[in-house]
Amino acid sequence: MPNILIVDDDKMFHEPLSFYLNEIGYDCDVASHFIQGEALANKKNYDIVLLDVFLPDMSGLEGISRMKKTPSAPEVIIITGQGNLQGAEMALKNGAWDYLEKPLPYNRIKLLLGRAMDYRQQKLKLCYQRVLQRDGIIGNSPKLMECLEIVAKAANTSGSVFISGETGTGKEQMAQTVHLNSSRRMNNFITLDCTNIPVNLVETLLFGYTKGTFTGADTNREGLIRQADRGTLFLDEVGDLPLPAQKSILGVLQRKKYRPLGAKEEIACDFRVVSATNRDLKKMVDQGQFRKDLYYRLVSFSVHLPPLRERFDDLKLLTNYYIHQICEEMGIDSKGVSKNFMEYLMQHNWPGNIRELIHTLQTAIAHATHEPVLYSQHLPFDIRIGFFKTTHQEKLTEKSSPPSIALDFDLSNFPKLKFFRETIESKYLDELIRYTNGKAEEACKIAGVSRSGWYHLMEKHGRNTGKRKQE
Questions:
Q1: Is 293 found in the same domain as 165?
Q2: Alpha helix locations (H) across 208-280?
Q3: Is 206 inside any structural domain?
Q4: CATH code where residue 452 lies
Q5: Which CATH number fits the domain that encloses residue 148?
Q6: Residue 98: strand pairing partners
Q7: Domain of 379, in residue numbers
Q8: How far apart are CA 23 and CA 18, in angstroms?
Q9: What ranges in 24-141 are assigned the alpha helix state H?
Q10: Is residue 132 part of a domain?
Q11: With b meaning 16 or more CB within 10 Å and e meaning fewer, what string describes 27-59?
Q12: Which of 123, 402, 170 is nearest to 303 (CA)?
């Protein structure tokens, strides 16, 4: 029996809905707060979570990724009484399966849940049937797993794969993963670095040439297309590809043939294209900087690699993996990691992503020489000073946050001004004591009263009246 969790604080909505879902064959549970729902999802495996946007403790839109991180990684369907385009866009970007506005006709809910269960069963079946060879792809964060799901689907086809992501996120490694899990894995994986290719050398690189075509062409030379035959051609930083080269590659993809320079006949070719870039290729198409027809040839499957700052759950796994790899390359024993070393890594924002992490660990290991454990002192100076600045700023922000003073009055019996003054003074005193940890000197400065005035307030409201004598 499929398990459904409704996270919604509106009893008029969730009680009849849960009853209906139980009647049509679903095992349905209800939570009125997100934290309560998350706790249930950590204890029980749910297939689908119906998640409201406006919850008492947090926004459902912000909770999508957290809910998908629970053990069963359920499909999340957002429901809301105040839908808008921006909310729908945010929900889908955060991984929601669908976005629905209340009121929901029950026949529509039944149809939608049926589709979601079909999708989930197919996805789970695919995961069970195929275990990806993912050497070097470290981590289990939800966003990374979504990328690997796409790779698993692409592996069974010859469709082109487009990989986007910031510099250093591991695009080439993911391209190799596509190749290693495809039927072409026994053949070549050929890389073309598209940055700074001279326009006059494009066809030479791609197609090769025959002997005597030009001065210096003493022998026949294979181009990259020929080398990638029956294998994979990886176009690294394809966004930097010159327009003439874009035209040449498009022609080969369309006709599955090419002609080496100086040759009289065309040669048939069969290769798969995997491309990657850190640039916004769609925007480049709109600006006329990249051919639209080539763009659509490259994106049969699209994989967007998350930056490291969005997959901190994987940081410890990545750190341990690369420490072991670096130490092995250096011919030394692998090193342990101290708690404060990881605290510094977790605090850093990693603008250079995994590539920056690797360089950082290389530096730390070099500084540690033969010491068995890595400490924060081994890290590069910029990360150490960055940690200090961030934590210091957090303390300043916390210190500068004004105390909140909430008053609950029965409006049907509104208080007299004198009572209000005494109440607000008493609450102010409590908040000030909490804020200063009971330090009289600091409290006096903040309140703008003398030491005797402070003790007068303390005695007036019955707060630690014996403290004056103790001090």
A1: yes
A2: 224-227, 243-255
A3: yes
A4: 1.10.10
A5: 3.40.50.300
A6: 77
A7: 309-400
A8: 9
A9: 34-43, 60-68, 85-93, 106-129
A10: no
A11: ebbbbbebebbbebbeeeebbbbbbbbebeeee
A12: 170
Collect all residues with Cβ–Cβ distance below 8 Å to 212 and sequence separation of at least 6. Answer: 262
Q: Which has the closest alpha carbon to 428: 407, 405, 451?
A: 405
Q: Do the beta carbons of residue 142 and residue 69 sit within 8 Å?
A: yes
Angle at 182 between CA 179 and CA 188, to 5 degrees: 45
Residue with token string 């809905």: 17
Judge if 265 and 217 occupy the same domain.
yes
What CATH number is given to the structural domain containing 116?
A: 3.40.50.2300
Which structure tokens are listed for 97? 């399966």
- Domain co-membership, 326 together with 240: no
| Same domain? 92 vs 123 | yes
- Single residue among 306, 333, 353 that ends a domain in this structure: 306
Of 306, 334, 360, the domain-final residue: 306
Any domain includes 215: yes
Per-residue pLDDT of the chain (471 residues; tens, 9 = 90+): 789 999 998 888 888 999 999 889 899 999 999 999 999 988 888 889 999 988 988 888 888 988 988 877 889 998 887 767 777 788 888 888 888 888 878 888 888 898 888 888 777 655 544 567 888 899 888 889 889 988 988 887 889 999 999 999 999 999 999 999 999 999 999 999 999 888 888 888 899 988 878 777 788 888 999 999 999 999 999 999 989 889 999 999 999 999 998 888 899 999 999 999 999 999 999 999 999 999 999 999 999 999 999 898 899 999 999 999 999 999 999 999 999 999 999 999 999 999 999 999 999 999 998 899 999 999 999 999 988 887 766 555 555 555 555 555 555 566 677 777 777 888 888 888 877 877 888 888 888 887 777 877 888 887 764 444 444
d(CA 164, CA 307): 11
Q: Where are the beta strands (DSSP E) in 333-453?
A: 336-337, 373-374
Largest CA distance in the chain: 106
Q: Is the peptide bond before 74 cis (omega within 30 degrees of 0)?
A: no
- Closest listed residue to residue 120, CA positions, set 141, 142, 149: 149
CB 10 within 8 A of CB 80: no
In a domain, 136, yes or no: no
Cβ-proximal residues to 149 (8 Å cutoff; 6+ apart), any chain? 123, 126, 127
Residue 268 pairs with which residues in a beta bridge? 257
Are residues 44 and 161 located together in one domain of the fold? no
Q: What are phi and psi of 187, to 5 degrees?
A: -110, -175
Nearest to 38 by CA among 14, 55, 17, 23: 55
Neighbouring CB atoms inside 10 A of 95's CB total: 16
Do 79 and 53 touch, CB atoms closer than 8 A?
yes
Q: Are 170 and 137 a contacting pair, CB within 8 Å? A: yes
Crossing angle of helices 106-129 and 11-23, rounded to 10°:
60
Residues 454 and 443 sit within 8 Å (Cβ to Cβ): yes
